[in-house]
Structures are given as C-alpha cells and as structure tokens.
C-alpha cells in the first residue's frame, strides 16, 4: 500500500505497506465422498461406510463476496443466490454493521448438512464470529483500547490484508493505531483494493483519488466496515498491538518487512522494494 502523509508538503506517493496482499483462492467446498456399493453380497460383520460429510472451508481474509460464491458452489445454487439471501437470514450483527456481514463471516471449516440453506450457513458463520469476538478477551481488549468490538474487527481486517506474515500482525496493528492517534490518514492500499473489488500490489495515483468511503488516502479514520473476514489471530493483534513507534512499513521482499518511524528511512526502503520489483527474479 502507499502512504504519502509524512511531511504535508510532499506530493510524492510513497508506499506504506506491501500494497495489499494477494488473496489465496481456494475452492471453498469439498465434495462429499460416496460409499462404494459392494456387488452381490456383503460379508457378515461388514457394513457400508457412511458418506464423508461435505464441508465448506472459509480461509482467513476472504471477502464477503468470496464467501457468498463458495456457499453457492457448496449448495449447488446459481451464482448470486447467497448474496440475495443475506436480508432474509436475520443475521445477529452489530448495529454499526448496518446489515453488512463483512468481517463477521468467520473463517473456519463448516459442515454442509443435508438440507442446508444459504441463510443457515451464513447464520452459522456469524454466530461463530459473535462467539469468538464477544467473549471476554476480545471485548475487554477492545474496551482497553478505547474502541468497540466492531472497530476492533475493522482494524483486524486491515491487519489481515496487510501483514505479510502472522508474526507481523501486531506491528501492522501498531502502525494503524499510531497513525490514528496522530491524525494521519491510514493510506492503506488494501482499502483501495476493497473499494475497487480487486487484489493487486500496484496502486496508482489515480487509484488514490477515487471517491469512496474506503479510500483511506482521502478519508480520515477507519473505513466504514471491515474489508474482509479476519481470523482470530488478526483480531487478537488488533487489541494487543506490538509496542513501537512505527508509522510506515513495506515488505521489501518475502520475509523482509521493514517498519520504521522515520520517513526518510521509509523512502529508502521503498526504493529498495521498487528495485526488487524491477529485478528479473521478481517476475518469475
């Protein structure tokens, strides 16, 4: 992601983070196995093995649109069916969500029982999220950081999208807190990607000028909703950020994410990142 907040006088576009994280695409559904019919007779004591239950896998960081598509596929429904079912599902969402389940479709492996419906599948995901998020550790952690649970989940969704590794999640969360506390725009490429419904490492200057409540280059504070469905570790990072004064970070290369509070140092890190991107090995 890019960030060009530092000195207000600068007009250069500086990448704050790794500029978004490419989502891992999975099929989401595992087709149920079938028992093998034994011809003619079954020996005494032998029984047909029951069919393996179908499951639906929701990876950490998937957006609601990806979850809807996976449910459609798992249930053999026409594309768009699950999305249309959201208003009928009567999901137990926070008031701040405004009926949008983004952030509360908890990543996990769910059974797909016979007779399952989109409404039931979505309700199970949201109920799981509420069980995880509203427990004492998360709720108390959010309150300790002067925010509500929904805000914590929103921060966690950015952490999930931006952190190159799970080990970096606490530091990314700290950058978010530090920028909010200093009245700086977040300038996260992941929020731009969400607004444009894409995943990319390349964010242009024109991208940062789009008119969207998710444009964290132009809008102050957090985006209006989470930008994906974060896992439990990202949520924990959001309520217990790693101590530090960092304001910028960039993943120069895999395994090498650099955090700093110094803008000039960040510029050098970004230059190294750009050089890495131009190298022949980066295109392999």
Characterise the protein shown here.
The protein has a domain at 148-278. The model is unreliable at 7-15 and 17-46 (pLDDT under 50). 35% of the residues lie in helices and 7% in strands. It has helices spanning 64-75, 81-85, 118-133, 136-144, 149-162, 169-181, 189-195, 232-239, 263-278; strands at residues 29-30, 55-57, 109-111, 248-253, 256-260. It is globular, with a radius of gyration of 22 Å. The two termini are 22 Å apart. The strands form two sheets. The protein has a three-stranded antiparallel sheet. The chain has a two-stranded antiparallel sheet with strand order 4-5. Helix 6 (169-181) packs across helix 8. With 284 residues, it is mainly alpha-helical. The longest helix is centred in the middle third of the chain and has 16 residues, at 118-133.
Q: Main traits of this protein?
A:
35% helix, 284 residues, two-stranded antiparallel ribbon, 3-stranded antiparallel β-sheet, mainly alpha, globular, 5 strands
Q: How are the SSEs placed, and which strands pair?
A:
Elements: E1 29-30, E2 55-57, H1 64-75, H2 81-85, E3 109-111, H3 118-133, H4 136-144, H5 149-162, H6 169-181, H7 189-195, H8 232-239, E4 248-253, E5 256-260, H9 263-278
Antiparallel strand pairs: 1-2, 2-3, 4-5
């Amino acid at each position: 992601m890019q960030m060009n907040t530092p000195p207000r006088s600068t007009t250069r576009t500086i990448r704050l983070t790794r500029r978004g994280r490419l989502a891992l695409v999975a099929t989401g559904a595992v087709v149920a196995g079938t028992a093998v019919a034994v011809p003619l007779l079954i020996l005494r004591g032998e029984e047909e093995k029951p069919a393996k239950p179908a499951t639906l896998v929701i990876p950490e960081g998937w957006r609601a649109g990806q979850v809807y598509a996976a449910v459609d596929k798992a249930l053999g429904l026409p594309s768009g069916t699950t999305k249309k079912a959201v208003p009928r599902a009567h999901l137990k969402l926070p008031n701040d969500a405004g009926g949008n389940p983004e952030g509360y479709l908890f990543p996990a492996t769910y059974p797909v029982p016979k007779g399952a419906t989109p409404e039931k599948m979505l309700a199970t995901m949201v109920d799981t999220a509420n069980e995880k998020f509203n427990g004492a550790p998360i709720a108390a952690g959010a309150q300790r950081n002067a925010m509500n649970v929904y805000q914590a989940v929103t921060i966690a969704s950015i952490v999930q999208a931006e952190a190159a590794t799970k080990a970096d999640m606490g530091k990314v969360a700290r950058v978010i807190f530090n920028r909010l506390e200093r009245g700086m725009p977040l300038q996260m490429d992941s929020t731009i990607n969400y607004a444009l419904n894409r995943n990319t490492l390349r964010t242009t200057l024109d991208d940062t000028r789009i008119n969207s409540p998710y444009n964290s280059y132009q809008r102050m504070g957090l985006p209006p909703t989470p930008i994906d469905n974060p896992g439990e570790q990202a949520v924990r990072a959001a309520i217990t950020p790693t101590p530090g004064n960092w304001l910028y970070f960039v993943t120069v290369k895999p395994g090498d994410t650099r955090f700093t509070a110094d803008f000039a140092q960040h510029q050098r890190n970004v230059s190294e990142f750009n050089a890495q991107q131009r190298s022949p090995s980066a295109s392999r």
